[in-house]
Amino acid sequence: MRRIIAIPAAVLLAFAAACSEDSGESATTADMSGQAAPGAVEPYDPDAEMYEVNEAVDPSEDPESTFAVDVDTASYDYARRALLDGGLPPQDQVRPEEFANSFDYGYEEPEGNGFSVRLDRQELPDWYASGDASEVLRVGLQTRTVPDEERADVNLTFVIDVSGSMEGDRIQIVRDSLTMLVGQLRPTDSVAVVTYETDSDVLLEMTEVADGDEIRDAIDDLEARGSTNMQAGLEDGYELAAESFDADRDNRVILLSDGEANVGLTEHDAMLEEIGGEIADGITLLTVGVGDSYNQELLEQLADNGNGWAVYFASEGGAEEVFSERLTSTLGVAAEDAKVQVVFDPATVADYRLIGFENRALEDDEFEDDSVDAGEVGPGHAVTALYAVTPTGEAGEYASVAVRWTDPETGETGEASAEAAVDADAGLDTALLAAAFAEVLRGSASFTCSDLLDDAEALAAASDDPDVDELADLIAIAAELGA
To answer: Which domains are present in the chain?
Structure first.
């Protein structure tokens, strides 16, 4: 039975407006210019750095593909917000790996810290035209879920943007999100609050959640005003986190902002240089983006290079998933500096292409270098990477995969691997559909959302996962907008 997809009125209006233009141009472009397509929300920065799309690689020349893991999902969440508001997301803010990471594939969990590893493959659908590639290979990683009663106590330092750009819904989302998070914490957990606008201010020293009234009062008092000195807020936040550092606890800074830094240092590399010592000392970072036109690149790069990850909240619903349903995943660390290396066999593979992960690439010799900063992964998190593969026609395995990490409890290096692909399940269909959707939205695909629709609707009809239903809805919306 085909699903009937309801298209929001805002989308239909935007589509009608786009169709009335004389140019008749497609809603996506192939040059990855970073500009928004017709009907899209405006990019935060039209000159934002664009990473070159991965090209097909001949394994006889380079058999190894190496990258740092990434559990960010902000790109997909922001694209959802843009589409439901009647526009396409800016191309420079679409990352296929974050689309694929936004779904639960039910990977088997390991027994301890570190990862389980899954390797599977199947034929590509007819609509997926990418060179001569005819198969997709999936690498799936999973960390162990930790029950809340087993997690360590936490020291959380909230660094909150209260500049003028955070007025209205944005600051209210922050208030609601933090109130929800504090309500999920234990009495023995501790919280500090730093705010920043033109200058920064320590609103609350590190305080046990048992003194909840003091924490709630600090959150309720948040008001938006002034310019945006993110540098000052991060410096004071990390200084406060360092003063309260406890090796027996998880120590994390949580930055909540639209990313519009305009006073002091405004680039992620300069900010990270100022707080590099505290990052090296074991303080991790979660960046939470809010707003309909936020600087995703800045918040993602801060998270990736600040030993953490990035999320986006369009509403209180996003906070519920991150701060309530997945609390232990958000607060803890199961693996530090995690990286992946896939080794392809030139006898069976003519070429391979990693879909996404362009800004997480590592040199092949960095895989066994434990001094190289890579990715931090929390308990119960999964990582999915996809490769478009052109087989040679020879029988045999296409590739082997290894993941390497540092155990946060012992400091020892761990490694896990898979040498052979297992039978694919429906999760691979979902992962490929999500990543292909992202390729269309960022302008790097030779197919369109209309090409994806039949498979999307069939997958949703066969699934009992509401997230897969929503993916099909979003693809339909994007198709109506001309993507």
So the answer is: 148-331 (3.40.50.410)
Count of residues making up the chain: 483
Task: Provide the token pair at 309.
Answer: 């990850």
Q: Which residue has the tokens 């974050």?
A: 98
CA neighbours closer than 13 Å in the CB half-sphere of residue 412 = 5
Which 8-state DSSP code applies to residue 322? I
Give me the helices (H) in 168-311, please.
169-184, 212-220, 230-243, 268-274, 276-280, 296-305
Q: Radius of gyration (Cα) for the chain, nearest Å?
A: 22
CA distances 192 to 120, 211, 236, 258, 382, Å, are 44, 12, 11, 20, 29
**Residues 25, 383: Cα–Cα separation, whole Å:** 36
Q: For residues 206 and 98, what is the distance between their CA atoms, to the nearest angstrom?
A: 33
- Would you state the torsion angle of the CA atoms of residues 3, 385, 51, 18, taken in this order, to the nearest 10 degrees? 0
Rounded CA-CA distance 189/421 in Å is 43
Q: pTM to 2 decimals?
A: 0.86
Task: Tabulate helix, strand, coil % of the chain (nearest 5).
Answer: 35, 25, 40
Condensed to tens digits (0 to 9), the pLDDT of residues 30-62 reads: 344 444 444 444 443 444 455 789 999 999 999
Supply the DSSP string of 390-407, one letter for each residue: EE-S--S--EEEEEEEE-
Which stretch, 43-57, 122-136, 358-372, has highest mean pLDDT?
358-372
Q: Residue 357: helix, strand or coil by DSSP?
A: coil
In whole angstroms, what separates CA 148 from the centre of its chain? Answer: 23
CB 430 within 8 A of CB 384: no
| Both structure tokens of 305 | 């290079």
